[in-house]
């Protein structure tokens, strides 16, 4: 198989990053990749999807990595996994690995899954400011994404379902596989979570996840966790706060101690990002130094500044990400990016352990001893296949109302030369609507 063939298979299967922003994977598969780094960090607390795949599909993953190494002409593939999770790996499979597919034990820190941090921990390379991993010859890819490539290449299966961890304020934590486009409220109900009065659901982890709109939100290719918390929990309240309230509180209480900057993981890797300056500029409205805003482009939104840094209970994360969003909306780029020469000497003493983060978030009581893989049969009456489940241009519908579709049929697609991907029916059914956002399919 050559690179062009692999790119086409991945594009037609609709494979994107299975967590985070959902970057179209066929665009990552490119000449110049020397190291493939697999994100097996299971970065955020309470997330367990990768655990299941590593434990039960390791050989499929390693075989796929060998294929990627050979096709891309890369030097090696490195699976970055926390030491505490090494027991998930079958020793017999690990011993059979060739020299080009390796296991790299990384520290149990947050955010180990940030591509900049992960690249450094696995390869020793620092991605230049404002750049992507390929700039240092690295491709970062998620565990479930690798598994999806395996299914596309070996079983001709596109992405029509998603592994999801359901946990938080629950009796048990489970991992299920649900159809893309199924309403999140229906997924939870099928798993027994029907009474959500005075509860909130977060799509993703407690740090970077988003609050779920239970009336409208559906499973997408990037849905990785559904965490249930009491409405009164500080994790929920932090996400509920409006930008206006956040800025007013910062204006009144920020003492410019710079601790948010001092613990910023990217600052510690040598990036020129000083979060406290963004907080001061945004909350005061005084624009004397545009760099205070432009540096927000370097923020990954991990939230360490908020949860571990700020002693005033403010939210530098929300402010920085709000500014970053405005920069992107107005297509304003930071012009003075650089390549850090070395990590800051204080980094080792300021790394945030997962245990400390869990305690600071107040979620220790929600950490379960294990997560059960539950084979729930989901049969939604309708699915809503979003056109935008990824970074880049939304897909365009390729079906019309009344069309009969089978699971795996293409229902929307972005042109191959654009940044986007392909969407597929996740159930057998009939197209009942094509809106600005979805293809709606009634199951039959």
How would you portray this structure in words?
The chain is of the alpha/beta class. It is built from 18 helices and 19 strands. A hairpin with a 6-residue loop joins strand 8 and strand 9 (210-211). Helix 13 crosses helix 16. A six-stranded mixed β-sheet has the order 9-8-10-6-7-12, with helices on both faces. A four-stranded parallel β-sheet has the order 3-2-1-5, with helices on both faces. The chain has helices at 3-12, 25-28, 49-56, 58-72, 91-95, 115-123, 143-155, 184-190, 234-240, 243-253, 259-262, 265-268, 275-284, 291-294, 304-309, 316-329, 347-350, 354-361; strands at 35-40, 76-82, 101-106, 109-110, 138-142, 161-168, 173-179, 199-203, 210-211, 225-230, 352-353, 371-373, 382-386, 396-397, 404-405, 410-413, 422-424, 429-434, 438-443. The protein is globular, with a radius of gyration of 22 Å. The model has no long low-confidence stretch (mean pLDDT 94).
């Amino acid at each position: 198989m050559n690179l062009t063939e692999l790119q086409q298979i991945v594009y037609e299967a609709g494979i994107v990053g299975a967590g985070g922003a959902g970057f179209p994977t066929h665009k990552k598969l490119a000449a110049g990749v020397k190291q493939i780094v697999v994100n097996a960090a299971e970065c955020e607390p309470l997330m367990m999807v990768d655990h299941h795949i590593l434990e039960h599909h390791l050989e499929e993953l390693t075989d796929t990595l060998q294929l990627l190494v050979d096709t891309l002409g890369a030097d090696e593939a490195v699976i970055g996994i926390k030491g505490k999770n090494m027991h998930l790996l079958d020793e017999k499979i690990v011993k059979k690995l060739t020299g080009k597919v390796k296991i790299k034990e990384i520290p149990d820190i947050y955010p180990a899954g940030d591509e900049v941090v992960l690249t450094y921990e696995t390869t020793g390379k620092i991605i230049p400011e404002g750049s992507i991993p390929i700039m240092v010859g690295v491709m970062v890819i998620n565990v479930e994404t690798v598994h999806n490539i395996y299914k596309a290449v070996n079983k001709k299966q596109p992405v029509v379902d998603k592994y999801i961890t359901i946990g938080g304020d629950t009796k048990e934590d489970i991992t299920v596989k649900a159809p893309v486009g199924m309403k999140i409220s229906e997924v939870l109900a099928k798993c027994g979570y029907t009474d959500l009065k005075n509860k909130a659901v977060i799509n993703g982890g407690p740090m970077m996840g988003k609050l779920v709109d239970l009336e409208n939100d559906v499973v997408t290719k990037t849905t990785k966790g559904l965490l249930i918390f009491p409405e009164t929990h500080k994790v929920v309240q932090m996400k509920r706060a409006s930008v206006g309230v956040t800025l007013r509180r910062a204006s009144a209480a920020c003492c410019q101690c710079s601790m948010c900057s001092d613990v910023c993981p990217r600052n510690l890797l040598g990036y020129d990002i000083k979060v406290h300056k963004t907080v001061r500029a945004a909350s005061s409205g005084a624009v004397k130094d545009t760099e205070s805003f432009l540096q927000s482009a370097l923020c990954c939104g991990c939230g360490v500044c908020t949860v571990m840094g700020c002693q005033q209970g403010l939210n530098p994360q929300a402010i920085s990400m709000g500014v970053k969003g405005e920069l992107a909306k107005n297509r304003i780029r930071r012009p003075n990016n650089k390549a850090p020469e070395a990590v800051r000497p204080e980094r080792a003493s300021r790394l945030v352990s997962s245990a400390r983060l869990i305690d600071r978030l107040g979620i220790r009581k929600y950490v379960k001893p294990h997560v059960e893989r539950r084979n729930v049969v989901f049969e939604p009456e309708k699915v809503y296949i979003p056109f935008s489940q990824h970074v880049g241009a939304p897909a365009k519908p390729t079906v019309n109302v009344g069309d009969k579709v089978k699971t795996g049929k293409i229902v929307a697609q972005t042109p191959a030369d654009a940044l986007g991907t392909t969407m597929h029916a996740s159930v057998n059914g009939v197209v009942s609507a094509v809106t600005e956002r979805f293809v709606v399919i009634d199951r039959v």
